[in-house]
Amino acid sequence: MKDVKIGPVPFTTVEPNVGIGYVRRECPCKNIKCNPISYVVLEGVCYIPIELVDVAGLVPGAWQGRGLGNQFLDHIRRAPALIHIVDASGSTDEEGRLVRPGSRDPVEDVKFLEREIVMWLMSIIKKDWDKAIRFSEYGKRPLADVLMEKLSGLGYEREHVERELEDLGLSKKPPSRWTDEDFLTFTSSLISERPIVIAANKVDLPEGEEGYKALKKAFPNRIVVPTSAEAELALRRAANKGLIRYKPGDPDFEVVGNLTQQQLAVLEKIREVMRKFGGTGVQTALNAAVFDALKYVVVFPVEDEHKLADKNGNVLPDALLVPGNATARDVAYMIHSEIGERFVSAVEALTGRRLGADSQVRDGLILKILTR
């Protein structure tokens, strides 16, 4: 585990912390002994690693470079999904200063972040716009081509851009006649489809629970997860000391060590929060980002479909997180480019069914790739 500076003070995080988190799902090897190499199994539950980047919060004007804005937004550019940790108790203002709980509307924090991202993305699109539209209007190049060059590296696909232009009525409007409103509408529409999970933190406080309800109401189309990072941290520390039995994402825990009355009282308060919200929410937020927002699935590749093992006999050695619309050939390329190039077909290990190159995979699939 990487040691990083943590604390209840806003902007404790200054430099981005890059580390590994885990998404959780039930393991298909409950009835057999598996030998995972690229992931971890705890009591029949798989924990599959993902890269996490913890970055400092934004201040107003971040898109113009204020504070650590440029650094933050650059990490957003590279991230396929964003977990926005919001102080649902309303105890920090827009500048990150501590205020009385309940005095700040957490809904404004979400609107503020998305506004900063929209302004940042719009500034990228508008840069050298006159030069860009000459290539489009006089060079007869499709506007989508020009926009894709500007959006390069930001995670947008051409069909997405073309769909937004069509839906907003901008596909037939000459780019030289675009107004500021057109830029704002187009950019806001792009951002609205970006995978963002709102982690409503501090729901263990009365103000936090109210803030969570307000966020759910204000953003009905967003994934909003009630979260208590402090409770999760306390449980992890107690589990590491052998005081409780707890797996990240469990809805409850079991006391197994000798605890003082004070420790028991603290844990009982945490248990009340977990019962109310189904857990601490930390693992739920990670799972929501990968499985709900990004719509990824888990595929287990094997070389021996009968023993469910690799060439060394390791049972279910790997777990791949792949897009939900991935095909069998896509999975082959994810394993190795040469395997993808030599792909012939695939076999579902548990059923023996053959899959063609364009067959879509499903969650929990154990897959054997056949090559030339």
TrEMBL record:
The OBG-type G domain, residue ranges: 1-247
InterPro entries in alphabetical order: Beta-grasp_dom_sf (IPR012675), G_OBG (IPR031167), GTP-bd (IPR006073), P-loop_NTPase (IPR027417), TGS (IPR004095), TGS-like (IPR012676), YGR210-like_G4 (IPR013646)
Keywords (A to Z) from UniProt: Nucleotide-binding
Single GO cellular component term: cytoplasm
Nucleotide-binding is among the record's keywords: yes
GO terms for MF: ATP hydrolysis activity; GTP binding
SUPFAM superfamilies (UniProt xref): P-loop containing nucleoside triphosphate hydrolases, TGS-like
Protease found in the keyword field: no
Name of this chain's protein: GTP-binding protein
Organism: Thermoproteus tenax (strain ATCC 35583 / DSM 2078 / JCM 9277 / NBRC 100435 / Kra 1)
